[in-house]
Automatic annotation (TrEMBL):
Transmembrane feature ranges: none
Record-linked PANTHER family: AMP-DEPENDENT SYNTHETASE_LIGASE DOMAIN-CONTAINING PROTEIN-RELATED (PTHR24094:SF15), SECRETED PROTEIN (PTHR24094)
Signal peptide (residue range): 1-18
Record's keyword annotation contains DNA-binding: no
Record carries keyword NADP: no
InterPro entries per UniProt: GmrSD_C
Key words, A-Z: Endonuclease, Hydrolase, Nuclease, Signal
Record protein name field: HNH endonuclease family protein
Pfam families per record: GmrSD_C
Length: 200
């Protein structure tokens, strides 16, 4: 697994995004994309979501999901179990703001199954756990649940956020995560990413 990323910054675009790790610049993303190995995806045989232990305990009673809900939300109030009881969440994928945590998913920007197909089938359990709970890169973010569900395990060769203004950010984040973890891309995925990044 590749771990060459050197740092993150903070977004300051909207209150709900204030603590999100900023994706790399478009120029860096184009450079990183050109260095990624292009190959057909590995067989999904053997994949199981449980192989990527996720929503681990971060602090006290708070797991990864609850931590990201607090990070990405505005005015979030939690109970003794760390569950969000109120707040609002801006979803960058569709531009909607939700006021119930139950309407929000924590998306793995590069889906777990996609990571498996792109090289994670060969990782250790600890490496998969790190990937599934990575709060340092733009890999986890709170989004509208019924927008995230159709995305499922699709890559940019098939799926993009409906909000056009976010596509460049999404492409930069996708390439950053794949580069950091040494994951591969397929030809259709790379072409779609290149098309968006060239317009950033």
């Amino acid at each position: 697994m590749k771990v060459s990323y050197t740092g993150t910054a903070l977004l300051s675009t909207t209150p709900a995004q204030a603590a999100l790790p900023t994706p790399i610049a478009a120029s860096a993303a184009r450079s990183y994309l050109s260095s990624l190995t292009v190959t057909t995806e590995h067989s999904r045989t053997g994949y199981n979501r449980d192989l990527f232990r996720h929503w681990i305990t971060i602090s006290g009673a708070c797991d990864t999901r609850e931590t990201i809900l607090k990070r990405d939300g505005t005015g979030v109030v939690t109970n003794a179990s760390c569950a969000a009881t109120s707040g609002s969440w801006y979803s960058p994928y569709d531009g909607a703001t939700r006021s119930a945590a139950s309407d929000v998913d924590i998306d793995h920007l590069v889906p777990l199954a996609e990571a498996w197909d792109s090289g994670a089938y060969n990782w250790t359990a600890a490496e998969r756990e790190q990937f599934a709970n990575d709060r340092s890169r733009p890999q986890l973010l709170a989004v509208t649940d019924n927008v995230n569900q159709p995305k499922s395990d699709l890559d940019p060769g098939t799926w993009w956020p409906s909000r056009t203004a976010y596509k460049c950010t999404y492409a930069r984040a996708w390439v950053q995560v794949k580069h950091y973890y040494g994951l591969t891309v397929d030809l259709t995925e790379k072409s779609a990413l290149s098309s968006v990044l060239n317009g950033c």
